[in-house]
Amino acid sequence: MMKRWQALKRLLPLLAMFSLLLSGCGREDLSVLNPQGPVAEGQLGLITISISIMALVVVVVFVIAAYVLIKFRRKPGQNEVPVQVEGNHKLEIIWTAIPLLLVIVLAVPTIQKVFAYGEDKWNEEGVLQVEVTGHQFWWEFSYPQYDITTAQELLMPVDREVALRLRTADVLHSFWVPSLAGKTDTNPDGSINHMSLSTGNPGTYIGKCAELCGQSHGYMEFRVKAVEAEQFDAWVEAFKAPAVLPEDSQLAEKFRTNCLSCHAVGDQGGFLGPNLTGIGSRETIAGILLNDINGAKGSSPVKDNLVQWLSEPQEVKPGNTMPDPKELGFSDEEIEQIADYLANYKLDY
Amino acid sequence: MDWLTTVDHKKIGILYLIAGGFFFGIGGIEAILIRLQLIKPMNDFVSAQVFNELITMHGTTMIFLGVMPVIFALMNAVIPLQIGARDVAFPFLNSLGFWTFLFGGVLLNLSWVMGGAPDAGWTAYTPLSSSTYSDSHGVDFYTIGLQIAGLGTLIGGINFLVTIITMRAPGMSYMRMPMFTWASFITSAMILFAFPAITVGLVLLSFDRILDANFFDVAAGGSPVLWQHIFWIFGHPEVYILILPAFGIISDVIPTFSRKRLFGYSSMVFATILIAFLGFMVWAHHMFTTGLGPVANALFSIATMLIAVPTGIKIFNWLFTMWGGQISFPTANLFAVGFIPTFVMGGVTGVMLASAPADYQYHDTYFVVAHFHYVIVGGLVFGLLSGLHYWWPKMFGRMLSEPIGKWTFWTFAIGFHLTFFVQHFLGLLGMQRRIVSYLPNQNFDTLNLISTIGALLMGVGILLFLYNIIITSKKPKNAKADPWEDGRTLEWSIPSPPPEYNFKQTPLVRGIDALWKEKMSGNKGMTPAEPVGSIHMPSPSILPFIMSLGLFIAGLGFMFSREGFNNSFMSFIFNNYLVLIVGLLITFGAMITRSLIDDPGYHIEPEDQEEEEKA
Lengths: 349, 615
Ligand code: HEM
Ligand SMILES: [Cu+2]
Hints:
Chain A is an alpha+beta fold. Chain A is built from eight helices and 14 strands.
């Protein structure tokens, strides 16, 4: 008994180190191990419990294995036949019972959380409702309470529960913001999935598509931006302002006929592509070209990113469905102008 | 020619080994290419389309064409010997199973040169795998190639079931069968139940794609989630179909090299059966994020966790088999001993994944990639390499080189852990799987680099193994009947390689570890259960080859039946289903020939048996 305690004592620091290692690991806007909201925190809690139990199992097996392998290696000249042990019921019952116990320890919080996260909060009072639609290879977010539809960037107020309904316009995708909540698939029409998340920390969180959805699956990133409530209200206000079009009327016309057949700005345009309202204040272009708004490493000015996207959309995101502006008859110069216009289309919030 | 017509289980085993090794090589090259692409952020070594084809073909090839046949190779080479049989129950079918598998696999891989490989992932989730979103013929190659190959697997499974049920030597009761035979028996039963499911799925999917059926088309009332259920009702048991034979191998290798009988034999048997049963009950744990609802998620969570119990029993039984033994470490045992901790690590992450709310974070990330490679590579491939080193002398009559074997083990094992251990962290840090590239500065860079280096090292390990095989094949065939000296089971009681008829006289089995028992009672070999006599053998036949060839042609014909060729002859023969019909006629023709021609086989008389023994 004493001995066993001693072994446990030796394991405890190891476990402590492990959990330390786990929390505080990775970028806080991206890592599962560095949660920024209650859902991800709860999930990390489960992960920590299970890792601890499992690390214990692994260590016990390793210790026994190492002991056996060292102690019982065949020595030169050892020729007598070892006792042929048939088995040992007591031992066998012990190692049936222990895993069973460990499984129960893990099963209880698992079931609690399954039901907690399975709740549909859509109709609860005070929640922010957001309808999420996955497209090859971009994300659409619409806010029925505010009659707003935006893309690539989900803006939310801090300290307010956000209830999501998820669907897809084409193939399966999976909505995942590691530091806020685990993922949920978007199934083709008919079955709408729901989930919820919230955070108390203002900031931008990286989201990813987690279900293979075609060539640019890996580039189907998005951002979740948590801001103060007043800022959110200001954003809603600004978003609903009438559309701003390029000043040059010829360019405006070209933009209207070629781009607004799919995209929308303000109250104008179509719904086949991402909404471009206020794109100049977003943190990325196309989800993966980082704008240097936050001075992120590897980022470029918004306008450069827009030029890059408009000059070669297929290079940035292979297989995406946007037609190449050059083939629509835009010259390099016009692309430059459009990029300039969009880069300056900012929302004040 | 001999090889095209053979119905001898030992030769078919070798055929399976060669074919499996070949596809394993292809899958391995695909893996290396994937890893090279991911060696640094925003790499453009391969295009996004090619990358998706690589991951799809890597997964599909490894699972269906790489490791399955190597398992079948060992089953063919070993089971009849372990149960004291002269052959399998249906030698003709055995050969048919091999050839359908091979032609199916070849068909699937032809996609690389015939206009695009499948690109929807090895799970081929609809609608991504529908003709709307994957409009090359890639997925057709997948559905049809796998149907043909799957037929071979199903045939093989049934054959082993019947063999083990009906052909055991006198005294070889179920509870005296060696564990590898037990594991194969249960695996075969699982094949019997699991493969029809995937076959149905593949038929439905190919009908959707080629004949415009609507099984999975939402707009027409179909359901993509249905595909996920069908796929995983097959797919999850499939993982156990793969791992159980490895368990069997380990349970045979460890006692031999510990000079002790297996600890807790009956609990091992029971645990194997329980794992197989639970394996069928947990398919939806691949679908926790699909939105099945909390009740389903909770039930499948618990059911999945329960698998830890029988698995734990096995692990401890192995450890206690070694306890008090005299362990020696030839390569075969290195892999077996290396299997235990590696597999445990894969197993515990499995339990972690079973907790649904935590899986919302792990699912479809590199954590999962790490987990299943720990199970499949760290478990199964270690097991297979152990089994191959162990039974190589029995199969080929030659001992593999031990020094090279040790190098193989160390490079492979170290490379393996380098590759996959860090991937757990990649997943937790936020790297999703199946991505062609990733942006820099997300803490992914170094870990991916390490992972790629590890993969290359594993490649070196496999090359060393190949080198070992090549130099060994040049050595004389001088392996002893019982080359490890501590052989316990029946296969070590006959010469290496065994004569065509395996046992000149069927042995009488008097207990678990039949040969060891005789050795301990001071006997030189097995006591025969019958007098020397004339042995009946089945005749070789080319028909299985022809039948499979017919299916191959029919598959191609079906696949391209709607293709717009710019050659009118091609359009004529394909669009009028002529190719399909010719292929089916070939197959049916061969079947009719088989039923009409009465082939009594032949006998090997005692004098000829003497000759063979001397030769
Ligand atoms: C040389 C050793 C191997 C390496 C370096 C390797 C590497 C990889 C990589 C990098 C992926 C892609 C992960 C992703 O983004 O989805 C992958 C996927 C996969 N691998 Fe391996 N692998 C190896 C061996 C094996 C073996 C032996 C098997 C099975 C017998 C296997 C089965 C799979 C499966 C099923 C997938 C999933 C494919 C998919 O996502 O559709 N791998 N492997
Ligand atoms: Cu995706």
